């Protein structure tokens, strides 16, 4: 069985941002040489997320509006966590959007349904953060 591991690094320009990382993940799959197996991709920071959904800008705006209603950034004083930092909302948003995705690999390809893409969700950005890609299989 083959095993592959790579860290991808991201630094967003905005506090909250969604980045389509499918091309980078497909490149990792090519590098791995795995034709049949599983791919795990997870955010290595508690205020970021990796998730699968449609690559449609209106949907991404809907995520932003919905998440801000669920866990508004301001006022910072509404959160007990916000003493030293002001990112309690980012922790809550990550909890909703999830930590990782697992994707089947079939015949050397990500075995996606229609329209599925992998995204990095940043909720406390403007600094460098990493995503782990782990691939196992034959």
Tell me how many strands there are: 8
Strand order of the largest sheet: 1-8-3-5-6
Question: How many helices?
Answer: 3
Q: Sketch the major β-sheet.
A: 5 strands, antiparallel
Supply the CATH superfamily name. Answer: YjbQ-like
What is the number of domains?
Answer: 1
| CATH T-level fold name | Jelly Rolls
- The CATH C-level name is Mainly Beta
How far is the N terminus from the C terminus?
A: 5 Å
CATH architecture, please? Sandwich
- CA-based gyration radius: 16 Å
- What would you call the structural class? alpha+beta
**pLDDT averaged residue by residue:** 97
Strand content: 35-45%
Low-confidence runs: none
Helical amount among residues, as a percent range? 25-40%
Topology, element by element:
Elements (H helix, E strand, L loop, with lengths): L1 E10 L5 E4 L1 H11 L4 E7 L4 E7 L2 H14 L17 H10 L2 E7 L2 E2 L5 E7 L5 E10 L1
Antiparallel strand pairs: 1-8, 2-7, 3-5, 3-8, 4-7, 5-6
Describe it:
The chain has helices at residues 22-32, 57-70, 88-97; strands spanning 2-11, 17-20, 37-43, 48-54, 100-106, 109-110, 116-122, 128-137. It has three helices and eight strands; from the N terminus they run E-E-H-E-E-H-H-E-E-E-E. The protein has 138 residues and is of the alpha+beta class. A hairpin with a 2-residue loop joins strand 5 (100-106) and strand 6. It has one domain (2-137): Jelly Rolls (Sandwich). It has a five-stranded antiparallel β-sheet with strand order 1-8-3-5-6, covered by helices on one side. Strands 2-7-4 form a three-stranded antiparallel β-sheet.
């Amino acid at each position: 069985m083959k095993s592959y591991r790579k860290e991808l690094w991201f630094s967003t320009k905005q506090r909250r941002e969604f980045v389509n990382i499918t091309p980078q993940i497909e490149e990792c799959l090519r590098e791995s040489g795995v034709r049949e197996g599983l791919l795990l991709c997870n955010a290595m920071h508690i205020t970021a997320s990796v998730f699968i959904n449609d690559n449609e800008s209106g949907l991404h705006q809907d995520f932003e509006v919905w998440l801000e209603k669920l866990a508004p950034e301001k006022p910072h004083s509404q959160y007990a966590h916000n003493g030293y930092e002001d990112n309690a909302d980012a922790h809550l948003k990550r909890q909703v959007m999830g930590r990782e995705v697992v994707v089947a690999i079939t015949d050397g390809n990500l075995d996606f349904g229609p329209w599925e893409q992998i995204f990095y969700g940043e909720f406390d950005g403007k600094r460098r953060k990493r995503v782990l890609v782990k691939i196992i299989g034959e």
